[in-house]
Design goal:
Elements: H1 6-12, E1 24-30, H2 35-44, E2 50-54, H3 60-68, E3 74-76, H4 78-82, E4 92-98, H5 107-121, E5 127-131, H6 142-148, E6 153-155, H7 168-173, H8 176-185, E7 189-192, H9 194-198, H10 200-204, H11 208-216, H12 220-226, H13 231-242, E8 247-250, H14 258-272, E9 275-278, H15 287-298
Parallel strand pairs: 1-4, 1-5, 2-3, 2-4, 5-6, 7-8, 8-9
Length: 302
């Protein structure tokens, strides 16, 4: 299998037959950019389960989406998880910890944060599903790291060949090779899938401090010469123009609300002054999403 060892491929991409009753605690460490994928899998899984969400400042979107589908959940403080106050139901439990979406712009901090949370979560769960991208940490194989350091079993998003889906776009279209193909097919396009459109401000504000400092350093004369309009959106439009972007590529993954996706894409287009183009049918691919959830359940005792 290309790009990874046989061990990694086996560990990552084995969609298990989740027949019968699943028992055990599945831990989830996730990014809000990929909570649509988790909610989709939970909502289509008919098996009875108890969901517990760590109550923090990053859980708002997943709670809203679960509420919209009428899926019940409980809340717990992270400190209570750490000291062992999380008590499994004896059936199928899912313990969800969402992290800061803005960490995508700080790869080293993202890596250290996820690994630290994994160390503390591991004793309380039977396996961990990582609903996040590597975001600049090339070939960051978290399940392999878990196995090598005694933190149990884990699984990440991979394509059908077992290659890592390195970021949220890769998850949406099923992997790196497809990503390269998309870049060749749609050059000069800014990719938007449902969660990206919904979380556009949070995504762009991840490096807000650095961007604000750069903007403040620009004099009126420099702005006029470079053609940079006032405000954050003006600076963003200039960066996109500098990068040769002309279009938003709208990638419909089938996740979330289509009406909300349409509305959010229009808002982004208005702010960026980019034209909208729909990706051809077939680019959105839920294969990595289905496989990750299947793999997570197969790691638990049945």
């Amino acid at each position: 299998m290309s790009g990874i060892t046989e061990y990694t491929a086996l560990f990552f991409y084995l969609p298990g037959d989740t027949v019968g009753m699943t028992k055990g605690v599945l831990g989830i460490i996730g990014c809000p950019m990929l909570d649509d994928n988790l909610v989709y899998s939970i909502s289509k899984d008919p098996e009875e389960k108890r969901i517990t969400i760590v109550d923090n400042e990053y859980d708002a979107t997943i709670r809203r989406k679960l509420d919209a589908k009428g899926i019940p959940y409980e809340l717990i403080n992270w400190d209570d998880v750490v000291v062992g106050r999380f008590v499994p139901s004896g059936g199928f439990d899912i313990l969800i910890l969402m992290i800061n979406l803005g960490l995508h712009s700080k790869p080293e901090l993202l890596k250290s944060t996820v690994e630290e949370y994994t160390k503390w979560m591991h004793p309380r769960v039977d396996a961990i599903g990582f609903y996040l991208g590597t975001c600049g940490n090339y070939n960051w194989n978290i399940p392999k790291w878990c196995a090598e350091n005694g933190y149990g079993r884990g699984a990440m998003f991979c394509d059908k060949e077992g290659n890592l889906c390195d970021d949220c776009v890769g998850v949406a279209i099923s992997g790196g090779p497809r990503y390269l193909q998309m870049q060749k097919t749609y050059p000069g396009h800014f990719y938007l899938f449902p969660a990206m459109a919904t979380n556009f401000d949070d995504f762009m504000n991840a490096d807000q401090a650095d961007t604000a400092a750069t903007e403040e350093s620009l004099t009126d004369e420099v702005r006029e010469v470079l053609g940079i309009e006032p405000g954050r959106d003006g600076y963003l439009r200039w960066l996109l123009q500098l990068g040769g972007y002309e279009y938003i590529l709208k990638i419909d993954t089938g996740l979330g609300s289509k009406e909300q996706f349409d509305a959010d894409v229009l808002k982004v287009a208005e702010r960026t002054h980019l034209k909208i183009k729909n990706a051809e049918a077939g680019w959105g691919d839920l294969g990595p999403t289905d496989a990750l959830y299947d793999r997570c359940k197969s790691m638990l005792s049945q």
